[in-house]
Fold Transmembrane protein.
Amino acid sequence: MEDFIEQLGTWISPSNWSTITFDDLEHPRLVVIYSIYWDVSLFLTSLFFCFMLYMIITKSSKEMSGYKWYLVHQLTWSYLFDAYLSIWKPVPLWPFYIAYSAGVFSGLTEYASVVQLIGLTVVAIGMGFSIYVSMFHRYVQVSPFSKFHAIYEKLKYRIPTYFYFLIVIIGVICVPLVIHLH
């Protein structure tokens, strides 16, 4: 077994990451490939988003009456995230965790880039929050006779509480980015 692993090691050339230049990472053909990928991805995502939205809203069973709106909420935030990335068209510079925009945001100044990052952060937080809210709803449904469940079932408390927590989370995470702007 050790001989096999040593043989594999000879096939892979050792990399000296300190000698990599930007020209080694960025290639015009790669930019075109990523740009086409994001265009196709946005088209397919839009088609599937419309189809899934139609199926969830019109074809859900009676038992899913309330939960289907959580699915719609989650699906919408996920679509917004995918659409935002498709407009941004990030081109990664492997092996490093950095990328640059080949889309609409490619000509932005440093100030505008941070604003764009805030938009991406808000959409990512919304997507994560929608997943959390869906899981929390399922958790509360486990004990329907609890006092908390009785309060939770009242939409006049639930919806404002969701909005409040979403705004607080967005504020806490985005305030450092906004402070960086000034």
Summary: Residues 56 and 64 are 9 Å apart (CA to CA). The chain has seven helices and two strands.
